Amino acid sequence: MDATDKTILNTLQTNFSLSSRPYQRIAEALDISEQEVISRIKNLKEAGIIRRIGATFDASKMGYISTLCAAKVNKESIEAFVALVNAFPNVSHNYLRTHSYNIWFTLSAESEEALETIIGEIKEKSGVEDILSLRAKETFKLDARFLL
Prior knowledge:
The chain is an alpha+beta fold.
C-alpha cells in the first residue's frame, strides 16, 4: 500500500463526495485517472483492507432500535448460518469470533417486536436456538475512522 492508496482510504472515510462520480472527484484531487482510483479500490477490497463502502446511519435518530446478537453455531453450520443472517437487510455487521458464542451480528428494526420477529425467523430457519440479544444501554463510539 503506497501513499496514494492511503490518501484514497482516508478520503473514503472522511470526505466521500455525494456526487454522480465520486471516484472522479478523488482522482482529480490526486491528479490520477478515475479508472486508477477504481482499480486501486478494487485491489484494496481484494486484499481485505476494505470490507465495504457505504453510509453509516444513526438508527436511533431514524426511529429504529438495534441490538448486538451473539449466536452459538456448530462449526459445520457456520457458512449456512452466516449466509442466512446476511440475507436480512436489517443486518449491518456479522463477525466470526473465537468464543462459544462464535457468530456476532448487529440487527436494526423499527421496534422491539420486529427485532424479536427477525431473531425468531433466524432461529427457525437455521435451527440455531442459542442466540442472545444484547441491547446497548449506552453508545460510546459511532464514528470509527482509521486514518493512515
